[in-house]
Amino acid sequence: MKCAILGPGGIADDQHAPAVNAHPDAVLWSVLSRSAERGADFAQRHALQSPDPVHTSLDTLLADKQLEGVIIATPDRLHEEQAVAAARAGKHVLLEKPMATSLAACDHIMKACDEAGVTLAMAYHHRWHAGHRALQRQVADGMLGSLRHMRVHWTFEAPDGGNWRSSPDTGRWWSLAANGTHCLDLIRWFMLPTEGNITDVRCLISRAKFASPHDESAIVLLRFASGATAEFSVSVQYASDPRVEIYGDEGWIRMENTLGRHGAGLIIHNDQSVAFHQHNPFLGELDDWIQAAREGRPPEVSAEEGRRNIEWLLKAIEASGEDRYTGV
Ligand SMILES: NC(=O)c1ccc[n+]([C@@H]2O[C@H](COP(=O)([O-])OP(=O)(O)OC[C@H]3O[C@@H](n4cnc5c(N)ncnc54)[C@H](OP(=O)(O)O)[C@@H]3O)[C@@H](O)[C@H]2O)c1
After folding, report:
1. How many angstroms does the Cα of residue 141 sit away from the middle of ligand 1?
2. Is residue 185 part of a domain?
3. pLDDT digits over 45-78, tens only?
4. What is the CATH number of the domain that holds 41?
5. Residue 326 belongs to a domain
6. Is the C-beta atom of 7 inside 6 A of ligand 1?
7. Which mutation among 96, 175, 181, 282 tests ligand 1's pocket best, with the greatest number of atoms within 8 A of CB?
8. Which of 1, 5, 19, 102 is 20 to 30 A from 254 (CA-CA)?
9. 115 and 165 in one domain?
């Protein structure tokens, strides 16, 4: 698949471009940047293969008949317009998390992709962490018995308050969009098969460090149909080691430093270390998208999953009682 990257920023540079170049059925073809210079630098660094690889206009990038798919790695509020345009141009879409910043935007994207018959996959790469994958199947098969509680903790320290997630023009949430959406996806992936849908949410947020209009920290509590509970705490105010814990009637799992980009970390099940092969999760999600498009099957992390995630992020920020979002 000939792929373009929209937004040659952090995650595109660090993960998506190397993953496309490492995939035997993918070609890194073109890039969209607001700056021709930044685009050219990216094109050179990652050896883009189109004879005309750098675009500062989405329309000209999408007009390329050879282009087959786009990886959208731009600020969250741009996802809707770019994904809809890509679908209407007949391009498959691998869309970075969170899917969009409203349910109406999710519906707009899904409708455009359905009508165009293109494959839309959500980039929740932790589902391709080899250890997570093996355990998710075993937990769904009852390894821990009935699940009682899951806890996810993931933070980092932003250098200042200037991140685009802090602006209503480009973001809707900050900590909840940077890390919280991943935590929620993991919790839903592990808990839903045996514990039913989420029924309740509570949330506390803090904006004490940068005076951001958006959440700098969030602590989210969830309850499932079975009565099982979960919590996640995310922050951009301080650094810490990420951690995932799952508790059931027949044991527990603890995962240390498995959240992040590299498919690494330590997993313990009832005091025993769990072995897994470290595998690049971005390559896994890319491969699933390409194969899904080729086979005409749904991707593993579908648009419906992306939309459900947005639904609960919105309910969480509403439950905080402190939503100050001013975007429309
Ligand atoms: N899966 C993951 O673990 C993961 C990790 C990080 C981020 N993400 C997601 O990937 C997307 C991009 O995040 P990122 O961390 O890569 O952000 P980033 O480093 O800021 O890169 C975003 C790029 O989008 C382009 N852009 C276009 N319009 C922009 C605007 N108005 N403001 C800022 N940038 C704009 C910029 O490129 P030009 O200036 O060259 O146009 C920029 O380099 C987000 O949806 C984010 O949630 C996912």
Report:
1. 37
2. yes
3. 999 999 999 999 999 999 999 999 999 999 999 9
4. 3.40.50.720
5. no
6. yes
7. 96
8. 19
9. no
Residue 77 lies in domain: 2-125+284-301
For the Cβ of 57 lying below 6 angstroms from any atom of ligand 1, the answer is: no
| 327 occurs within a structural domain | no
Query: What CATH number did the domain enclosing 260 receive?
Result: 3.30.360.10
Q: Are 133 and 199 in a shared domain? A: yes
150, with CB counted inside 10 A (0-12, 13-18, 19+), is buried
Q: What is the number of helices (H) and of strands (E) in the chain?
A: 11, 14
d(CA 162, ligand 1 centre) in Å: 13
Listing DSSP states for 247-308 in one string gives EETTEEEEEES-SSSSS--EEEETTEEPP-----HHHHHHHHHHHHHHHT---SS-HHHHHH
CA distance 200 to 228: 11
In the DSSP assignment, the letter for residue 237 is B
- State whether 93 and 187 are in the same domain: no
* pLDDT, tens digit, 9 for 90 and up, residues 248-274: 999 999 999 999 999 999 999 999 999
**Residues 166 and 314 grouped into a single domain:** yes
139 plus 253 within the same structural domain: yes
Nearest ligand 1 atom to alpha carbon 282: 1
Task: Give me the percent of the chain exceeding a pLDDT of 70.
Answer: 100
Cα 142 versus chain centre, distance = 27
Instruction: Measure 13 CA to ligand 1 centroid, in angstroms.
Output: 10
Atom of ligand 1 nearest to the CA of 124: 1
The domain total for the chain is: 2
Residues 97 and 154 in one domain: no
Q: Contact, 29 vs 49, CB < 8 A?
A: yes
Question: For residue 273, how far is its CA from the centre of ligand 1 (angstroms)?
Answer: 36
Measure 7 CA to ligand 1 centroid, in angstroms. Answer: 6
